[in-house]
């Protein structure tokens, strides 16, 4: 292998699916100003599962929303692949979110009047795209909802509803799936099923996944964890385990407690 080929492989290896550079997000003005992101630069690698962790109010959801084009940065840049989100007019940003990103939210956000099947294919229907029936069959099989396709969301458990939401996020084979506390409303068993699905999506279909979570066990399913504190990126961890993530989070708690005692 010559040097150029090696360089190319290296470049492919580290290709980010999404990233932010020097991201600043300020909410409010003057006395009510909150600096939710304070010069954060982070890459979310393609075909990997990244968890975003940190204490409450550290800026996790803000980072996810700005990286996914749901909210805009005050300063700095957010990229999906090579596309800089801040330069896009609203209409193009809406299309980008619809066609290139999959979303999973804590509250499932399914359409109650649609069946399970219709909810899953909704992103394709909105985009006017053809449903790849082989892919749909595979997805339905993977999420284990084959016998529920004609049901409405209210006829499903929370865990089943979130599995529908994951299938919906994956159906258009987006460049990145962004998940905001996807297990926050689930018991531990349903949560583990949803995390297992996201893990399989990365391992088996090379999906890129970025997930905000409070839960060290959930973060233990990821390939890497990025830690935020006070709107800043303070650490990253490769190949995390729930125990290592928990220990890292305890360090934050201890620091807050120590600072609090000093104060
Ligand atoms: N729309 C908003 N208007 C004003 N302040 C906001 C808004 N959204 C978030 N904030 C503030 O920005 C900071 C970061 O919030 P963010 O929701 O990103 O944190 P988080 O780490 O996701 O918190 P949690 O774990 O509690 O969900 C917090 O101080 C929060 O109060």
Automatic annotation (TrEMBL):
Molecular function GO terms recorded: ATP binding; ATP hydrolysis activity; transmembrane transporter activity
The keyword Acetylation belongs to this UniProt entry's keyword annotation: no
Pfam families associated with the record: ABC_tran
Keywords carried by this UniProt record: ATP-binding, Nucleotide-binding, Transport
Domain (ABC transporter): residue spans on this chain: 18-255
The protein's name in its UniProt record: Putative ABC transport system ATP-binding protein
Organism field: Kitasatospora viridis
UniProt KW Transmembrane keyword: no
Gene Ontology CC entries for this record: membrane protein complex; plasma membrane
